[in-house]
Each structure stands twice: as structure tokens, then as C-alpha cells.
Amino acid sequence: MTTELALARSRAVRAALAGFGLVACYAVVGALQILVWNPLAAVPGATLAEIRAQMAGAREHAGTPLVVAWSLTGILLGAGVLVAALRRKISAAGAVTLSLLLIVLGAPSIMVASFPSGMGLADTFGISGGDHAPWGALLYLASAAALLLLLVLFLVRRRPRPIPVPSG
User: Fold this and answer.
1) Is 40 helix (H, G, I), strand (E, B) or coil?
2) Are 16 and 88 in contact (CB under 8 A)?
3) CA 102 → CA 10, 91, 110, distances in Å?
């Protein structure tokens, strides 16, 4: 393997590792936001066990299986990008692009994953089903920043390159 190829592979793996870390962090923070932090913020003074017991008594649920599936799906997709980089199937730019895309897609998908929990809280406690803890907004901000970075990368790649003029 030439030095140039080794450097390209190393950059791709490092980019995929960083992307995997960010995607996994997003997934874990999202799951904690939906299942722990938001219920505690929505019902101040109650423990998580008390909140779950009241929800169960009202025949409501937190949507835990959906949230866990959402989180694991994000982590597995991030791992897929890493595996592709390790197998030399994608470049560093491809790893960055795919990782950013996963974070962008986190925003609409977390809305779907959090819906049962939010509605369960709303129906049980007579409150809004929206975010009560600040971490959901942080996740949406991360998705927006990833979208902005993707747009910048797209524009930089699309920028016309100067045509070399032969000297003569």
C-alpha cells in the first residue's frame, strides 16, 4: 500500500470514528432525553419510578421499546459508516458526509421516537406533550448545525475549480 493510500485510509477511519462517536452520543442523549430527563422535568418533584407508576395506572406508556430501537438504529448506522471506512469502501469525505446526514436525520426521527412518551406524559399529567427538559432543543440544534455543515460541504465541492492555463 502506498503512503498516499495509507494516509487516505487513515483519514477515512479517523473521520468515521469521530462520526460514530457523534452519532452514538446523539442517540444516547436522545434516549436519555425521552426516557429520563424529559419526564423528570415534566413532573417536577416526582421520581422516575413514581412517574412511570402513574402512567401505568392511567394505562399510558413511555414508548421505551421504540426509543431503544431508535437509539440502537442510530448507533448501528453510525457503526456501518465506520465498517465501510475500515473496509476501504468510503473516503474521509464520504464518512463525514454520511455521519452528518445521520445527525441531520436525528431531528425528524427523534420526534417520532418521542411521540408516545410525550403523549403518555400529556395524557397522564394534563400537560403539553412537548419537551420540558432543555436537551431536546440541543439535539435539534445539533441536527441544524449538521445540516448547515452538509450544505457548506456541498457548496465547497460544487465550486468550480480554475482551469489551468498552459504557459506558452
Assistant:
1) helix
2) no
3) 22, 16, 12
Cα 123 to chain centroid distance, Å, stands at 27
Predicted TM-score (pTM) of this structure: 0.87
Look at residues 134, 108, 133 and name the one whose alpha carbon lies nearest to residue 48: 133
Residues 6+ apart with CB under 8 A from 161: none
Q: Could you say which DSSP state residue 151 is in?
A: H
What residue type is assigned to position 115 of the chain?
F
Q: What is the CA radius of gyration of the chain?
A: 21
Nearest to 16 by CA among 69, 101, 92, 123: 92
Tell me which residue of 29, 27, 26, 46 sits closest to 121, measured CA to CA: 46
* pLDDT tens digit sequence for 79-113: 999 999 999 899 999 999 999 999 999 999 999 99
Give the H/E segment covering residue 23.
helix 3-32
| C-alpha distance across the termini of the chain, in Å | 38
